[in-house]
Write a structure and sequence with these properties.
Length: about 240
Amino acid sequence: MNNTVLRPGKDLPLSQLKPISPPTVADHVFTELHTSILSLALPPQSKISETEVAKTMGVSRQPVREAFKRLAKLGFLVIRPQSSTTVSLISEEAVMRARFIRIALEIQTCRTACAEMNTSDVAALKSLLEQQRLAVAANDPIAFHTLDDQFHREICMRSGLDYVWDLIHESKGHMDRIRMLSLTSSSQRIALEEHIVLVNAIEAKDADAASAAINAHLSRIVVLIEQMKTENHDWFTEESL
């Protein structure tokens, strides 16, 4: 039995610290499949198998099996033993849950940003806006999506709330498939305009305006999901995941 008593102000005995584990093969497989699902490279109802994924990625089936289980737990795969594994349909309920979480977290983050961000921080956001303009001009939805994520992450990080982005990142996957599906040239321009309004509010240190801007920005997915359901109705389900 370890009878070490930790006292305030004392260092934690190094023998009790555990080394940080490097990413495993299963982590790598998970990340690759997760990215492919969210980007719609693997669209809803796509059939995938452990054997094919293992062969393609040059790994054994065990890490693939672990990755499949993690993706199924998050609601992105439907595993039917002795049958097939398919990419899940897009659940409207899951998207709305993710939206609620993002709005709750990002409203408070933007209010904090108004109090904490300095001119250098705002300049960094404006630099990202300029990169987004270039992506819109090139009609590059993949680049715009990446920059969009970086923009929201940067607000969290520069507000001293990096852990909030971790929470957002965990929950936003179901929204991401809608975003990728809807990233037309027009929708990219609208998102950029909304980002500009938000940065202007943060620069003016107007917390109420920033809150309203982020709420409007994230709420637009309600309209987008109805449009996408009309155009791709076979990819959606009203059931919970």
